[in-house]
Structure formats: structure tokens, C-alpha cells
Amino acid sequence: MILASAFILVYLSGEFFTFRRLSPVALVDAVEALGAGGFAAVGLAAVVMNLPFLDNYLPLGQFPGAISSSGTIALISFFVGLEVAAAFVLIVGELLEQTLLRSA
């Protein structure tokens, strides 16, 4: 993953303005907040039900290995994925912006 990211960064560095147009900071910040808020909401929902934070309160389903059988793990993974992806896009955008400012 880290090695693949290096190639993606090299590609994106040449297309900064397209990258910035497709990922406006306000939208990416909103997605990051949605991920963090969703993670907290899943945990707080368990607390409201008198369960430990992030405890599983959804049914596990009938098909082992299926996403529908994971309970709250699928929700937690989804929201963490949103948070991490948005943070990665923000970091890459800032690094590219600084690179262009130094070279100008």
C-alpha cells in the first residue's frame, strides 16, 4: 500500500489543479467529520443501550463470513474508512500545494 501510494503521489503531483478541483477542502472536511461522527455515534448508541462503548448491538446474521453477519463491525469499518480516506486526501492535497508553492 505504501509503495503504491508513492506512485499515486507522483501522478497526482502533475495534476494538482484537477486534484484540487475534484476534492475541495470543505467537502473533504465534511466527509472526514462524517466518518468521525459516525464512529462516535455507533459507540454512543451502544452506551445508550447500557452496553460498553462500541459493543456489538446489531444481530450477527445467519451466513458466516457475509458482511450482514458482522454486526456493528461493518459500520465501524465504513466510518473509519471514510475518516482515513478523507484525511489521506487532505494530507496529499496539502503536500502537493506546498510542493507547488516552493517550486514557483
The count of strands amounts to 0
Low-pLDDT residue spans: none
Q: How much helix is in the residues?
A: over 70%
Count the DSSP helices. Answer: 4
Distance between the termini: 31 Å
Oligomeric status of the shown chains?
Answer: single chain
- Secondary structural class: mainly alpha
- Mean pLDDT score: 81
What percent strand?
Answer: under 5%
Compressed to H and E, one letter per element, the order equals HHHH
Overall geometry: elongated
3D structure, described in words:
This protein is mainly alpha-helical. The protein has a domain at 24-95. It has helices at 2-14, 16-22, 25-48, 72-103. Helix 3 (25-48) runs antiparallel to helix 4 (72-103). The longest helix is centred in the last third of the chain and has 32 residues, at 72-103. It is elongated, with a radius of gyration of 18 Å. The mean pLDDT is 81.
Describe the structure using short key phrases.
mainly alpha; 104 residues
Summarize the structure.
This protein is mostly helical and 104 residues long. It is 73% helix and 0% strand.
Give me the secondary-structure topology.
Elements: H1 2-14, H2 16-22, H3 25-48, H4 72-103
Helix pairs in contact: 3-4
